[in-house]
Amino acid sequence: LEVGFAGTKQCMVTFVKRVPGPLSGPASTLPQQLRMITYQDGSPFETLNSYVHLSLGPYLNSAVTIQRSGDKVGKDSIRKAVEELQLQLTHLEQNIDIPEVHLVAHPAVRGVVAEATKVNIKPDVGDFGEKLDDTEFLNSLQRDVHKWIREMQKVTRMERDPSTGSAIQEVNFWLNLEDALVKMGEKKDSPEIKLTIEVLRKKNRFLATMSFDQDTGLDKRLETVKNYNPLMKDFPKCIDRLLKATDTDEIKSATVDVFSHLKRVRTTNYPIPRALKLVMAISRDLNECLLKVLGNQRLMHTSHEEFDRIINGCKRVFNTWEDEDERFRTTLREMIRRRRDTDMRTFRRIKPEHEALKKRLEELGVFRKQHEQLRTVIARVLRPSAQDELAGLQDVHDANAIEEVNLAYEDLKSIDALDLTEGGLRAWQAAQKRYGLRIEKVEGRIIEKLNDQLTNCKKANEMFRIFKKFNALFVRPRIKGAIR
Protein backbone atom coordinates (compact mmCIF):
# COMPACT_ATOMS: atom_id res chain seq x y z
CA LEU A 1 0.00 0.00 0.00
CA GLU A 2 1.12 3.57 -0.67
CA VAL A 3 0.23 6.68 1.30
CA GLY A 4 -1.64 9.21 -0.85
CA PHE A 5 -3.38 12.56 -0.48
CA ALA A 6 -7.15 12.05 -0.35
CA GLY A 7 -8.36 15.67 -0.30
CA THR A 8 -8.47 18.60 2.08
CA LYS A 9 -11.59 17.29 3.85
CA GLN A 10 -10.11 13.90 4.66
CA CYS A 11 -8.27 12.88 7.83
CA MET A 12 -5.85 9.98 7.64
CA VAL A 13 -3.81 7.69 9.88
CA THR A 14 -0.85 5.71 8.60
CA PHE A 15 0.84 2.78 10.30
CA VAL A 16 4.45 2.09 9.39
CA LYS A 17 6.15 -1.20 10.26
CA ARG A 18 9.39 -0.84 12.18
CA VAL A 19 10.68 -4.01 10.54
CA PRO A 20 9.66 -5.23 7.05
CA GLY A 21 7.60 -8.40 6.97
CA PRO A 22 4.39 -9.69 8.56
CA LEU A 23 3.37 -8.63 12.06
CA SER A 24 3.85 -11.26 14.73
CA GLY A 25 2.98 -11.94 18.34
CA PRO A 26 -0.10 -10.96 20.37
CA ALA A 27 -2.01 -7.72 19.81
CA SER A 28 -0.39 -6.17 22.88
CA THR A 29 2.94 -6.06 21.01
CA LEU A 30 1.58 -4.03 18.06
CA PRO A 31 2.65 -0.65 19.52
CA GLN A 32 6.25 -1.93 19.52
CA GLN A 33 5.98 -3.11 15.91
CA LEU A 34 4.22 -0.09 14.39
CA ARG A 35 4.76 3.63 14.15
CA MET A 36 1.66 5.81 13.77
CA ILE A 37 1.36 9.16 11.96
CA THR A 38 -1.85 11.20 11.75
CA TYR A 39 -2.77 13.71 9.03
CA GLN A 40 -5.52 16.21 9.82
CA ASP A 41 -7.92 17.72 7.30
CA GLY A 42 -7.01 21.00 5.63
CA SER A 43 -3.92 21.95 3.66
CA PRO A 44 -1.45 19.04 3.38
CA PHE A 45 1.41 21.52 3.20
CA GLU A 46 0.35 23.15 6.47
CA THR A 47 0.23 19.74 8.15
CA LEU A 48 3.64 18.68 6.84
CA ASN A 49 5.16 22.07 7.63
CA SER A 50 3.90 21.80 11.19
CA TYR A 51 5.46 18.34 11.55
CA VAL A 52 8.82 19.45 10.12
CA HIS A 53 8.99 22.78 11.97
CA LEU A 54 7.77 21.68 15.41
CA SER A 55 8.69 18.01 15.59
CA LEU A 56 10.78 16.28 12.93
CA GLY A 57 13.25 19.15 12.41
CA PRO A 58 14.07 19.73 16.10
CA TYR A 59 14.16 15.95 16.74
CA LEU A 60 16.53 15.34 13.83
CA ASN A 61 18.81 18.25 14.71
CA SER A 62 18.94 17.13 18.34
CA ALA A 63 19.66 13.51 17.38
CA VAL A 64 22.47 14.50 15.02
CA THR A 65 23.96 16.83 17.65
CA ILE A 66 24.01 14.06 20.26
CA GLN A 67 24.80 11.04 18.11
CA ARG A 68 27.19 12.75 15.64
CA SER A 69 28.69 15.46 17.84
CA GLY A 70 32.02 15.40 15.99
CA ASP A 71 30.60 15.56 12.48
CA LYS A 72 30.20 19.33 11.96
CA VAL A 73 29.82 19.01 8.18
CA GLY A 74 27.09 16.40 8.59
CA LYS A 75 25.22 18.50 11.16
CA ASP A 76 25.30 21.58 8.94
CA SER A 77 24.10 19.56 5.93
CA ILE A 78 21.18 18.11 7.90
CA ARG A 79 20.22 21.52 9.28
CA LYS A 80 20.26 23.13 5.84
CA ALA A 81 18.26 20.24 4.32
CA VAL A 82 15.59 20.57 7.01
CA GLU A 83 15.44 24.36 6.56
CA GLU A 84 15.18 23.98 2.78
CA LEU A 85 12.30 21.49 3.14
CA GLN A 86 10.52 23.76 5.60
CA LEU A 87 10.98 26.77 3.32
CA GLN A 88 9.57 24.98 0.28
CA LEU A 89 6.59 23.69 2.30
CA THR A 90 5.95 27.26 3.47
CA HIS A 91 5.98 28.47 -0.14
CA LEU A 92 3.52 25.74 -1.14
CA GLU A 93 1.31 26.58 1.83
CA GLN A 94 1.29 30.30 1.01
CA ASN A 95 0.77 30.03 -2.75
CA ILE A 96 -2.57 31.25 -4.05
CA ASP A 97 -4.22 28.50 -6.04
CA ILE A 98 -5.02 29.59 -9.57
CA PRO A 99 -8.09 27.56 -10.58
CA GLU A 100 -7.66 25.42 -13.67
CA VAL A 101 -10.15 26.34 -16.37
CA HIS A 102 -11.96 23.52 -18.17
CA LEU A 103 -13.57 24.51 -21.48
CA VAL A 104 -15.80 21.53 -22.27
CA ALA A 105 -17.24 21.54 -25.79
CA HIS A 106 -20.61 20.14 -26.88
CA PRO A 107 -20.51 16.35 -27.58
CA ALA A 108 -21.47 16.95 -31.21
CA VAL A 109 -18.55 19.36 -31.64
CA ARG A 110 -16.14 16.90 -30.06
CA GLY A 111 -17.47 14.19 -32.39
CA VAL A 112 -16.91 16.30 -35.53
CA VAL A 113 -13.37 17.18 -34.44
CA ALA A 114 -12.58 13.54 -33.63
CA GLU A 115 -13.78 12.36 -37.05
CA ALA A 116 -11.80 15.05 -38.84
CA THR A 117 -8.69 14.16 -36.86
CA LYS A 118 -8.97 10.51 -37.88
CA VAL A 119 -8.73 11.39 -41.56
CA ASN A 120 -6.23 14.17 -40.91
CA ILE A 121 -8.38 17.05 -42.20
CA LYS A 122 -9.49 20.31 -40.67
CA PRO A 123 -12.99 20.20 -39.16
CA ASP A 124 -15.49 22.38 -40.98
CA VAL A 125 -18.81 24.02 -40.06
CA GLY A 126 -20.47 22.15 -42.91
CA ASP A 127 -19.75 18.84 -41.16
CA PHE A 128 -22.68 19.47 -38.83
CA GLY A 129 -25.26 19.17 -41.63
CA GLU A 130 -28.85 19.64 -40.49
CA LYS A 131 -27.77 20.50 -36.93
CA LEU A 132 -26.90 23.97 -38.15
CA ASP A 133 -30.62 24.66 -38.41
CA ASP A 134 -31.39 23.14 -34.99
CA THR A 135 -32.22 26.05 -32.69
CA GLU A 136 -31.81 23.95 -29.55
CA PHE A 137 -28.35 22.86 -30.70
CA LEU A 138 -27.32 26.46 -31.38
CA ASN A 139 -28.73 27.62 -28.03
CA SER A 140 -26.76 24.87 -26.32
CA LEU A 141 -23.54 26.04 -28.02
CA GLN A 142 -24.31 29.60 -26.97
CA ARG A 143 -24.80 28.52 -23.35
CA ASP A 144 -21.46 26.72 -23.50
CA VAL A 145 -19.75 29.89 -24.69
CA HIS A 146 -21.24 31.99 -21.89
CA LYS A 147 -20.13 29.34 -19.40
CA TRP A 148 -16.58 29.44 -20.82
CA ILE A 149 -16.54 33.23 -20.46
CA ARG A 150 -17.52 33.00 -16.77
CA GLU A 151 -14.90 30.30 -16.16
CA MET A 152 -12.16 32.31 -17.83
CA GLN A 153 -13.12 35.49 -15.99
CA LYS A 154 -12.53 33.71 -12.67
CA VAL A 155 -8.84 33.67 -13.61
CA THR A 156 -8.46 36.86 -15.67
CA ARG A 157 -10.08 38.92 -12.90
CA MET A 158 -8.09 37.33 -10.07
CA GLU A 159 -6.32 39.74 -7.75
CA ARG A 160 -4.49 39.60 -4.44
CA ASP A 161 -3.87 42.24 -1.81
CA PRO A 162 -0.10 42.92 -1.82
CA SER A 163 -0.31 44.55 1.61
CA THR A 164 -0.88 41.11 3.14
CA GLY A 165 1.23 37.98 3.18
CA SER A 166 4.85 37.51 2.17
CA ALA A 167 6.87 38.77 -0.79
CA ILE A 168 7.07 35.28 -2.31
CA GLN A 169 3.27 35.14 -2.38
CA GLU A 170 3.14 38.30 -4.52
CA VAL A 171 5.90 37.04 -6.82
CA ASN A 172 4.45 33.54 -7.24
CA PHE A 173 0.98 34.95 -7.82
CA TRP A 174 2.10 36.71 -11.02
CA LEU A 175 4.33 33.86 -12.20
CA ASN A 176 1.59 31.27 -11.64
CA LEU A 177 -1.03 33.55 -13.17
CA GLU A 178 1.01 33.82 -16.37
CA ASP A 179 1.27 30.02 -16.60
CA ALA A 180 -2.49 29.70 -16.05
CA LEU A 181 -3.30 32.34 -18.67
CA VAL A 182 -0.99 30.76 -21.26
CA LYS A 183 -2.65 27.38 -20.70
CA MET A 184 -6.05 29.02 -20.94
CA GLY A 185 -5.05 30.61 -24.24
CA GLU A 186 -4.03 27.20 -25.56
CA LYS A 187 -7.41 25.79 -24.61
CA LYS A 188 -9.15 28.77 -26.17
CA ASP A 189 -7.35 28.03 -29.43
CA SER A 190 -8.22 24.32 -29.39
CA PRO A 191 -10.10 22.93 -32.44
CA GLU A 192 -13.28 22.28 -30.42
CA ILE A 193 -13.51 25.85 -29.13
CA LYS A 194 -12.65 27.43 -32.50
CA LEU A 195 -15.22 25.28 -34.28
CA THR A 196 -17.92 26.20 -31.77
CA ILE A 197 -17.27 29.92 -32.37
CA GLU A 198 -17.27 29.42 -36.15
CA VAL A 199 -20.66 27.70 -36.00
CA LEU A 200 -22.18 30.51 -33.95
CA ARG A 201 -20.64 33.15 -36.20
CA LYS A 202 -21.97 31.34 -39.26
CA LYS A 203 -25.46 31.39 -37.77
CA ASN A 204 -25.20 35.09 -36.85
CA ARG A 205 -25.01 34.53 -33.09
CA PHE A 206 -22.72 37.53 -32.86
CA LEU A 207 -23.63 38.42 -29.25
CA ALA A 208 -21.97 35.23 -28.02
CA THR A 209 -18.98 35.34 -30.37
CA MET A 210 -18.19 39.02 -29.70
CA SER A 211 -18.54 38.47 -25.97
CA PHE A 212 -16.12 35.53 -26.19
CA ASP A 213 -13.58 37.68 -28.00
CA GLN A 214 -13.90 40.76 -25.81
CA ASP A 215 -15.30 39.92 -22.36
CA THR A 216 -12.93 37.19 -21.19
CA GLY A 217 -10.15 39.75 -20.69
CA LEU A 218 -7.57 37.10 -21.55
CA ASP A 219 -5.45 39.03 -24.03
CA LYS A 220 -5.31 42.22 -21.97
CA ARG A 221 -4.60 40.37 -18.73
CA LEU A 222 -1.88 38.26 -20.34
CA GLU A 223 -0.26 41.39 -21.75
CA THR A 224 -0.25 42.97 -18.27
CA VAL A 225 1.17 39.88 -16.59
CA LYS A 226 3.92 39.47 -19.18
CA ASN A 227 4.85 43.10 -18.64
CA TYR A 228 5.14 42.61 -14.87
CA ASN A 229 7.01 39.32 -14.91
CA PRO A 230 10.49 40.51 -15.91
CA LEU A 231 10.46 41.83 -12.33
CA MET A 232 9.14 38.55 -10.91
CA LYS A 233 11.39 36.21 -12.88
CA ASP A 234 14.33 34.94 -10.76
CA PHE A 235 13.02 36.94 -7.79
CA PRO A 236 12.26 33.77 -5.76
CA LYS A 237 16.00 32.98 -5.69
CA CYS A 238 16.75 36.34 -4.04
CA ILE A 239 13.92 35.97 -1.54
CA ASP A 240 14.91 32.39 -0.72
CA ARG A 241 18.44 33.56 -0.03
CA LEU A 242 17.05 36.03 2.50
CA LEU A 243 14.79 33.45 4.13
CA LYS A 244 17.61 30.88 4.35
CA ALA A 245 20.06 33.32 5.97
CA THR A 246 21.53 31.99 9.22
CA ASP A 247 23.29 35.12 10.50
CA THR A 248 23.10 38.90 10.20
CA ASP A 249 25.89 39.07 7.61
CA GLU A 250 23.94 36.76 5.29
CA ILE A 251 20.75 38.77 5.89
CA LYS A 252 22.58 42.00 5.04
CA SER A 253 24.01 40.53 1.81
CA ALA A 254 20.63 39.07 0.80
CA THR A 255 18.94 42.43 1.45
CA VAL A 256 21.30 44.12 -1.02
CA ASP A 257 20.53 41.41 -3.62
CA VAL A 258 16.76 41.82 -3.14
CA PHE A 259 16.86 45.58 -3.69
CA SER A 260 19.22 45.17 -6.63
CA HIS A 261 16.65 42.87 -8.23
CA LEU A 262 13.83 45.31 -7.45
CA LYS A 263 15.44 47.83 -9.82
CA ARG A 264 14.04 45.75 -12.68
CA VAL A 265 10.76 47.51 -11.97
CA ARG A 266 12.04 50.32 -14.22
CA THR A 267 11.51 48.15 -17.31
CA THR A 268 7.91 47.31 -16.39
CA ASN A 269 4.58 49.03 -15.80
CA TYR A 270 4.28 47.40 -12.37
CA PRO A 271 2.21 49.92 -10.33
CA ILE A 272 4.28 52.07 -7.99
CA PRO A 273 1.82 51.77 -5.05
CA ARG A 274 2.05 48.00 -5.47
CA ALA A 275 5.87 48.18 -5.57
CA LEU A 276 5.82 50.02 -2.23
CA LYS A 277 3.58 47.33 -0.75
CA LEU A 278 5.95 44.68 -2.10
CA VAL A 279 8.80 46.39 -0.22
CA MET A 280 6.68 46.23 2.95
CA ALA A 281 6.16 42.50 2.36
CA ILE A 282 9.93 42.08 2.04
CA SER A 283 10.27 43.99 5.31
CA ARG A 284 7.94 41.44 6.94
CA ASP A 285 10.14 38.64 5.61
CA LEU A 286 13.24 40.42 6.92
CA ASN A 287 11.59 40.77 10.32
CA GLU A 288 10.77 37.04 10.45
CA CYS A 289 14.27 36.15 9.33
CA LEU A 290 15.89 38.31 12.02
CA LEU A 291 13.61 36.86 14.69
CA LYS A 292 14.59 33.36 13.57
CA VAL A 293 18.30 34.15 13.74
CA LEU A 294 18.04 36.05 17.03
CA GLY A 295 15.81 33.40 18.55
CA ASN A 296 18.70 30.94 18.38
CA GLN A 297 21.02 33.40 20.18
CA ARG A 298 19.12 33.78 23.50
CA LEU A 299 20.06 37.45 23.73
CA MET A 300 19.50 37.91 27.46
CA HIS A 301 21.70 34.88 28.22
CA THR A 302 24.72 35.81 26.10
CA SER A 303 27.78 37.58 27.44
CA HIS A 304 27.87 41.36 27.07
CA GLU A 305 30.59 41.10 24.40
CA GLU A 306 28.62 38.55 22.37
CA PHE A 307 25.46 40.63 22.79
CA ASP A 308 27.24 43.70 21.40
CA ARG A 309 28.46 41.67 18.42
CA ILE A 310 24.92 40.48 17.63
CA ILE A 311 23.35 43.93 18.08
CA ASN A 312 25.99 45.55 15.88
CA GLY A 313 25.24 42.94 13.21
CA CYS A 314 21.53 43.86 13.40
CA LYS A 315 22.38 47.56 13.17
CA ARG A 316 24.30 46.89 9.95
CA VAL A 317 21.24 45.10 8.56
CA PHE A 318 18.93 48.00 9.46
CA ASN A 319 21.35 50.60 8.06
CA THR A 320 21.67 48.59 4.85
CA TRP A 321 17.87 48.43 4.55
CA GLU A 322 17.55 52.21 5.01
CA ASP A 323 20.22 52.93 2.40
CA GLU A 324 18.81 50.49 -0.16
CA ASP A 325 15.22 51.56 0.53
CA GLU A 326 16.11 55.22 -0.08
CA ARG A 327 17.83 54.35 -3.37
CA PHE A 328 14.78 52.35 -4.47
CA ARG A 329 12.44 55.22 -3.61
CA THR A 330 14.62 57.52 -5.70
CA THR A 331 14.14 55.07 -8.57
CA LEU A 332 10.35 55.18 -8.06
CA ARG A 333 10.36 58.98 -8.06
CA GLU A 334 12.21 58.96 -11.39
CA MET A 335 9.60 56.54 -12.74
CA ILE A 336 6.79 58.87 -11.65
CA ARG A 337 8.39 61.75 -13.55
CA ARG A 338 9.04 59.59 -16.60
CA ARG A 339 5.52 58.20 -16.68
CA ARG A 340 4.05 61.64 -15.94
CA ASP A 341 1.75 59.95 -13.49
CA THR A 342 -0.66 62.68 -12.41
CA ASP A 343 -2.45 60.33 -10.00
CA MET A 344 0.70 59.81 -7.96
CA ARG A 345 3.02 62.78 -7.80
CA THR A 346 4.79 61.58 -4.67
CA PHE A 347 4.43 59.12 -1.78
CA ARG A 348 4.96 59.36 1.93
CA ARG A 349 7.52 57.28 3.79
CA ILE A 350 5.98 54.33 5.61
CA LYS A 351 7.61 52.73 8.63
CA PRO A 352 8.90 49.28 7.66
CA GLU A 353 7.42 46.21 9.28
CA HIS A 354 10.67 45.55 11.14
CA GLU A 355 10.62 48.97 12.85
CA ALA A 356 9.19 47.51 16.09
CA LEU A 357 11.97 44.92 16.23
CA LYS A 358 14.56 47.62 15.57
CA LYS A 359 13.25 49.70 18.47
CA ARG A 360 13.16 46.72 20.81
CA LEU A 361 16.76 45.84 19.97
CA GLU A 362 17.77 49.47 20.60
CA GLU A 363 16.02 49.28 23.99
CA LEU A 364 17.80 46.04 24.80
CA GLY A 365 21.13 47.55 23.76
CA VAL A 366 20.68 50.58 26.03
CA PHE A 367 19.39 48.42 28.88
CA ARG A 368 22.23 45.92 28.78
CA LYS A 369 24.85 48.67 28.45
CA GLN A 370 23.48 50.47 31.50
CA HIS A 371 23.19 47.23 33.46
CA GLU A 372 26.75 46.22 32.60
CA GLN A 373 28.04 49.65 33.66
CA LEU A 374 26.05 49.49 36.90
CA ARG A 375 27.17 45.95 37.70
CA THR A 376 30.82 46.71 37.01
CA VAL A 377 30.88 49.95 38.99
CA ILE A 378 28.94 48.58 41.94
CA ALA A 379 31.22 45.56 42.12
CA ARG A 380 34.20 47.91 42.17
CA VAL A 381 32.75 50.45 44.60
CA LEU A 382 31.40 47.93 47.08
CA ARG A 383 34.32 45.55 46.85
CA PRO A 384 36.13 45.27 50.23
CA SER A 385 39.55 46.83 50.53
CA ALA A 386 42.62 44.66 50.18
CA GLN A 387 43.11 44.73 53.98
CA ASP A 388 39.52 43.70 54.67
CA GLU A 389 39.67 40.99 52.00
CA LEU A 390 42.84 39.50 53.56
CA ALA A 391 41.20 39.64 56.95
CA GLY A 392 38.05 38.01 55.56
CA LEU A 393 36.00 41.08 56.36
CA GLN A 394 33.23 42.31 54.06
CA ASP A 395 30.13 44.28 54.81
CA VAL A 396 27.26 41.81 54.40
CA HIS A 397 25.04 44.61 53.05
CA ASP A 398 27.60 45.34 50.31
CA ALA A 399 27.72 41.66 49.36
CA ASN A 400 23.93 41.54 49.26
CA ALA A 401 23.80 44.63 47.05
CA ILE A 402 26.12 43.06 44.50
CA GLU A 403 24.06 39.85 44.57
CA GLU A 404 20.83 41.87 44.23
CA VAL A 405 22.08 43.45 40.98
CA ASN A 406 22.83 40.00 39.55
CA LEU A 407 19.45 38.61 40.67
CA ALA A 408 17.63 41.62 39.21
CA TYR A 409 19.06 40.73 35.79
CA GLU A 410 18.40 36.99 36.20
CA ASP A 411 14.68 37.73 36.41
CA LEU A 412 14.81 39.19 32.87
CA LYS A 413 16.16 35.93 31.44
CA SER A 414 12.81 34.22 32.03
CA ILE A 415 10.93 36.34 29.46
CA ASP A 416 11.13 36.47 25.68
CA ALA A 417 12.62 39.91 25.09
CA LEU A 418 11.83 39.65 21.36
CA ASP A 419 8.10 38.97 21.81
CA LEU A 420 6.59 42.02 20.10
CA THR A 421 2.95 41.13 20.74
CA GLU A 422 0.86 43.10 23.26
CA GLY A 423 1.34 40.30 25.77
CA GLY A 424 5.09 40.31 25.15
CA LEU A 425 5.23 44.10 25.60
CA ARG A 426 3.41 43.86 28.93
CA ALA A 427 5.75 41.08 30.09
CA TRP A 428 8.83 43.13 29.09
CA GLN A 429 7.54 46.25 30.85
CA ALA A 430 6.64 44.27 33.99
CA ALA A 431 10.11 42.69 34.04
CA GLN A 432 11.74 46.12 33.66
CA LYS A 433 9.64 47.41 36.55
CA ARG A 434 10.72 44.50 38.81
CA TYR A 435 14.32 45.11 37.78
CA GLY A 436 13.99 48.83 38.60
CA LEU A 437 12.56 48.12 42.07
CA ARG A 438 15.47 45.86 42.91
CA ILE A 439 18.01 48.34 41.60
CA GLU A 440 16.38 51.08 43.70
CA LYS A 441 17.21 49.04 46.80
CA VAL A 442 20.82 48.76 45.65
CA GLU A 443 20.98 52.49 44.93
CA GLY A 444 19.57 53.16 48.40
CA ARG A 445 22.38 51.11 49.89
CA ILE A 446 24.98 53.00 47.82
CA ILE A 447 23.52 56.39 48.83
CA GLU A 448 23.62 55.35 52.47
CA LYS A 449 27.25 54.20 52.17
CA LEU A 450 28.23 57.35 50.27
CA ASN A 451 26.62 59.65 52.85
CA ASP A 452 28.28 57.78 55.72
CA GLN A 453 31.70 58.12 54.13
CA LEU A 454 31.18 61.82 53.30
CA THR A 455 29.98 62.50 56.84
CA ASN A 456 33.17 61.00 58.28
CA CYS A 457 35.42 63.09 56.02
CA LYS A 458 37.56 65.59 57.89
CA LYS A 459 39.51 66.97 54.94
CA ALA A 460 38.63 68.08 51.44
CA ASN A 461 41.03 65.66 49.77
CA GLU A 462 39.30 62.75 51.56
CA MET A 463 35.99 63.95 50.15
CA PHE A 464 37.43 64.25 46.64
CA ARG A 465 38.84 60.73 46.93
CA ILE A 466 35.37 59.40 47.79
CA PHE A 467 33.80 61.34 44.93
CA LYS A 468 36.36 59.84 42.56
CA LYS A 469 35.53 56.35 43.79
CA PHE A 470 31.78 56.83 43.30
CA ASN A 471 32.06 59.11 40.27
CA ALA A 472 30.96 56.45 37.73
CA LEU A 473 27.64 56.07 39.58
CA PHE A 474 26.72 59.75 39.35
CA VAL A 475 25.06 59.05 35.98
CA ARG A 476 22.30 57.42 38.05
CA PRO A 477 19.79 60.25 38.68
CA ARG A 478 18.85 59.04 42.17
CA ILE A 479 22.46 58.81 43.37
CA LYS A 480 23.38 62.13 41.76
CA GLY A 481 20.40 63.85 43.40
CA ALA A 482 21.24 62.46 46.83
CA ILE A 483 24.62 64.22 47.04
CA ARG A 484 23.50 67.70 46.05
Give the helices and strands, then pairings:
Layout: E1 12-17, H1 30-33, E2 34-39, H2 44-67, H3 72-94, H4 107-118, H5 135-156, H6 167-188, H7 191-202, H8 206-214, H9 218-232, H10 235-244, H11 248-262, H12 272-295, H13 304-339, H14 355-381, H15 386-390, H16 396-410, H17 422-455, H18 460-470, H19 477-482
Antiparallel strand pairs: 1-2
Mean pLDDT value: 84
Task: Give the tally of β-strands.
Answer: 2
DSSP summary: helix tally: 19
The gyration radius over C-alpha positions equals 35 Å
Question: Helicity range of the residues?
Answer: 55-70%
- The unreliable regions are none
Distance between the terminal alpha carbons, to the nearest Å? 85 Å
Largest sheet descriptor: 2 strands, antiparallel
Strand content: under 5%
Strand order of the largest sheet: 1-2
Query: Which word captures the global form?
Result: elongated
Q: What is the N-to-C order of secondary-structure elements (H for helix, E for strand)?
A: EHEHHHHHHHHHHHHHHHHHH
Class inferred from helices and paired strands:
mainly alpha
Q: Would you mind describing this structure in some detail?
A:
This protein has 484 residues and is mostly helical. The protein is built from 19 helices and 2 strands. It has a two-stranded antiparallel ribbon. Helix 11 runs parallel beside helix 13.
Key words describing this protein structure:
484 residues, mainly alpha, two-stranded antiparallel ribbon
